[in-house]
Description:
By secondary structure, the chain is mainly α. It has one domain (34-150). It contains seven helices and two strands. It has helices at residues 5-22, 26-33, 35-52, 54-75, 111-118, 120-130, 141-150, and strands at residues 102-106, 136-140. It has a two-stranded antiparallel ribbon. α3 packs across α4 and α4 (54-75) packs parallel to α6 (120-130). It starts with a helix and ends in a 12-residue tail after the last helix.
Amino acid sequence: MSLTGEEAQARRKQQIAAWRERNPDYFKDYAKKHVEELRIYYKEYYREARTDNPEKFILRSREGRHKTKLKVIEVLGGRCANPDCRWLNEDGTVGCNDTRLLEVDHIHGGGRKEVEAIGYHAMMRSIIEFGGQGKYQLLCRCCNHLKRIKNGEHGKGKSACH
């Protein structure tokens, strides 16, 4: 019996999935043994991907950042943490829950320094993995900007209003 191309592809996927179940640590072990080799490979791979098809690369990057942001918003409660937020939601509740307007805020300031030290994506991954830990909160853009003004955190950085 001969398989069609789609059937053969589906069968191969099943075989690979079964192998991965039997060997769950194979890729972790391989990555540990070949760190430098993989770093060089992926650096070249992504450089080529960006130059060969920049639109696709930009779209995937944007989608990935959006998914990460949605996970962070979910971990931090899904709405503006300011009890004085006056945003009225469609369901009649108060406190902005519009994901387009929610921002991660460092409760005690120092966010720019942290991002410069570990990077934006590392910070977001740590929030997803460990939660806010009393260090982060969600604020809508208006509440975040008002907090920055009130606490004198409105230095040379980007402003929500500009």
